[in-house]
Amino acid sequence: MQQNTPTIEQLRARIDGIDDQIVALLNERSRVVLEVGRLKSGSNMDFHVPGRERQIYERLLNVNPGPFPNDALRSVYREIISASLSLESPMKVAFLGPKATFSHLATMQQFGLSAELVPLKSIPAVFEEVEKEKALYGVVPVENSTEGVISHTLDMFVDSGLKITAEILLEVHHDLLSRTGRLEDVKKVYSHVQPIAQCRQWLEDNLPGIPVVDVASTAVAAQIVSEDYSAAAIASELAATLYDLKVVRSRIEDQVNNFTRFLVVSRKGCERSGNDKTSVLFSVKDEPGILFRMLEPFAKRGINLSKIESRPFKKKAWEYIFFLDLFGHSSDPQVAEALEELRLCCQFLKILGSYPRSM
Ligand SMILES: O=C(O)C(=O)C[C@]1(C(=O)O)C=C[C@@H](O)C=C1
């Protein structure tokens, strides 16, 4: 028995052989992707196809027998697809900066490391970059599971012609970061208002009486703290790497299951993937029973709604606009019919986009 057990050198030699095969296969895949790219440029098709990417992930996660974990498989494939896409055509993606914020993490999660990621100062600046064709995509936050909607993003869709082409769900973790990495050195805490609110209990329990200062972003907090040994920032792990900080405590958020949802916007809509969501924006006529009538087209066709949000319509006092997310693609016959029926009781209706559901 004993003499059949392979040595570590033998096992490593086997790993080297397998790695050679993986590299050869990655290159074979890249050559096929380049052919796809040539076909696309000949027929003016989009290089980036989020629906196809979703199908790839879904299929691979289903066929994976393990023990290689599905989460890791997804990360590996994100980079394979990101690199493949950059072989076909380099891609520029604008996001709500600065670097190391959760928007940055979400953008990396969606587009991988091969895309050119550009941090911008505000949500309108991200929209403008895409509208002016300086970036192919823009990434902006739209809601947080504990803090609610980011109304600024919703309001942008009233006047913008951009389409939503993907949603990103990011699980948010907050870390306490400082230069020394020691809790007893912390005499002041900096962060953005939202993370501060999300870590309130932890701060009271672990740093009672320590002043907490809100600043423009978690990245600004990390930057301040990188020059002050007596301060700490609540920010992401990525901020620790970018600003050379140590993790004092990780995952200090009060609520587990804290997610932020981001939207990817672009100038063009997105093809059907088979598992999609559609977002619409509309304002209804002021009539009795209108709230019932606006939901009826979906209820009677069994179309699931995942969100409905109302906002004051800034152009007219006391009028409201609604944002609605439903399951399905606007080209699905049932969805198209329901939207046409909804249109009849609306002053205006705008389809903001159909896009693959995040996984
Ligand atoms: O199938 C395509 O259309 C491709 O361009 C290939 C590929 C891939 O790497 O599999 C790359 C980018 C697209 O967004 C989707 C898939």
Automatic annotation (TrEMBL):
<dbReference type="GO" id="GO:0005737">
    <property type="term" value="C:cytoplasm"/>
</dbReference>
<keyword id="KW-0413">Isomerase</keyword>
<keyword id="KW-0028">Amino-acid biosynthesis</keyword>
<feature type="site" description="Essential for prephenate dehydratase activity">
    <location>
        <position position="260"/>
    </location>
</feature>
<feature type="domain" description="ACT">
    <location>
        <begin position="279"/>
        <end position="356"/>
    </location>
</feature>
<keyword id="KW-0511">Multifunctional enzyme</keyword>
<dbReference type="InterPro" id="IPR010957">
    <property type="entry name" value="G/b/e-P-prot_chorismate_mutase"/>
</dbReference>
<feature type="domain" description="Chorismate mutase">
    <location>
        <begin position="2"/>
        <end position="92"/>
    </location>
</feature>
<dbReference type="InterPro" id="IPR002701">
    <property type="entry name" value="CM_II_prokaryot"/>
</dbReference>
<keyword id="KW-0057">Aromatic amino acid biosynthesis</keyword>
<dbReference type="GO" id="GO:0046417">
    <property type="term" value="P:chorismate metabolic process"/>
</dbReference>
<keyword id="KW-0584">Phenylalanine biosynthesis</keyword>
<dbReference type="Pfam" id="PF00800">
    <property type="entry name" value="PDT"/>
</dbReference>
<dbReference type="GO" id="GO:0009094">
    <property type="term" value="P:L-phenylalanine biosynthetic process"/>
</dbReference>
<keyword id="KW-0963">Cytoplasm</keyword>
<dbReference type="InterPro" id="IPR001086">
    <property type="entry name" value="Preph_deHydtase"/>
</dbReference>
<protein>
    <recommendedName>
        <fullName>Bifunctional chorismate mutase/prephenate dehydratase</fullName>
        <ecNumber>4.2.1.51</ecNumber>
        <ecNumber>5.4.99.5</ecNumber>
    </recommendedName>
</protein>
<dbReference type="InterPro" id="IPR036263">
    <property type="entry name" value="Chorismate_II_sf"/>
</dbReference>
<dbReference type="GO" id="GO:0004106">
    <property type="term" value="F:chorismate mutase activity"/>
</dbReference>
<comment type="pathway">
    <text>Amino-acid biosynthesis; L-phenylalanine biosynthesis; phenylpyruvate from prephenate: step 1/1.</text>
</comment>
<dbReference type="InterPro" id="IPR018528">
    <property type="entry name" value="Preph_deHydtase_CS"/>
</dbReference>
<dbReference type="InterPro" id="IPR036979">
    <property type="entry name" value="CM_dom_sf"/>
</dbReference>
<dbReference type="Pfam" id="PF01817">
    <property type="entry name" value="CM_2"/>
</dbReference>
<dbReference type="InterPro" id="IPR045865">
    <property type="entry name" value="ACT-like_dom_sf"/>
</dbReference>
<comment type="pathway">
    <text>Metabolic intermediate biosynthesis; prephenate biosynthesis; prephenate from chorismate: step 1/1.</text>
</comment>
<dbReference type="GO" id="GO:0004664">
    <property type="term" value="F:prephenate dehydratase activity"/>
</dbReference>
<dbReference type="InterPro" id="IPR002912">
    <property type="entry name" value="ACT_dom"/>
</dbReference>
<comment type="function">
    <text>Catalyzes the Claisen rearrangement of chorismate to prephenate and the decarboxylation/dehydration of prephenate to phenylpyruvate.</text>
</comment>
<dbReference type="InterPro" id="IPR008242">
    <property type="entry name" value="Chor_mutase/pphenate_deHydtase"/>
</dbReference>
<dbReference type="Pfam" id="PF01842">
    <property type="entry name" value="ACT"/>
</dbReference>
<keyword id="KW-0456">Lyase</keyword>
<feature type="domain" description="Prephenate dehydratase">
    <location>
        <begin position="92"/>
        <end position="267"/>
    </location>
</feature>
